[in-house]
Specification:
The protein is of the alpha+beta class. About 40% of the residues lie in helices and about 20% in strands. The strands form two sheets. The protein has a three-stranded antiparallel β-sheet with strand order 3-4-5. It has a two-stranded antiparallel sheet with strand order 1-2.
Length: about 150
């Protein structure tokens, strides 16, 4: 994005510093900072430019999240179902085995997770939550309703 495209009608921009920040969002922030020092400029225009900057930052964080999530998913391996459920007689991979196998991969690409629960509107259910956070600033919250386990 060139600074000539960012000029406001009839208002020249102050001289551009020779060492502009690397990303388009950072370059736009540099222009916004200079715009905010111009008393003749309508603050609404500065606010609109700042909103554009925030959208650019958000979009970049989402792209980084998605790129790194694809890398994580390409490296994850299946976890062996080594535990037996005494009630159903079925085999399953316990949460510790899943966590041990997966954590090194997701942390390698800047992810962390926060799990929790909250009350559910459905009787005899609980809402389980999982927030996936990325070092680039984007996160996703997953929620699902599950029946309470009354069998043990």
């Amino acid at each position: 994005m060139s600074t000539s495209n960012l000029a406001i009608q009839g208002v020249p921009l102050p001289r551009i510093e020779p060492n502009l920040p690397a990303t388009p969002a950072a370059q736009l922030m540099n222009v916004i900072e200079r715009m905010s020092l111009m008393p003749e400029l309508d603050m609404d225009r500065v606010e609109r430019a700042f909103a554009m900057h925030q959208k650019m930052e958000h979009d970049a964080a989402v792209r980084a999240f998605n790129t790194d999530m694809a890398k994580v998913q390409s490296e994850l391996q299946s976890v062996v179902a080594a535990k037996k459920n005494k009630h159903t007689e079925s085999m399953y991979a316990d949460i510790d085995a899943i966590h041990t196998a997966c954590k090194p991969v997701w942390t390698k690409y800047g992810f962390s997770i926060v799990g929790g629960s909250k009350p559910c509107d459905i009787p005899s259910h609980i809402t389980m939550t999982l927030e996936v956070l990325h070092s680039g600033g984007h996160s996703k919250l997953y929620e699902d309703n599950w029946p309470l386990d009354t069998a043990g």
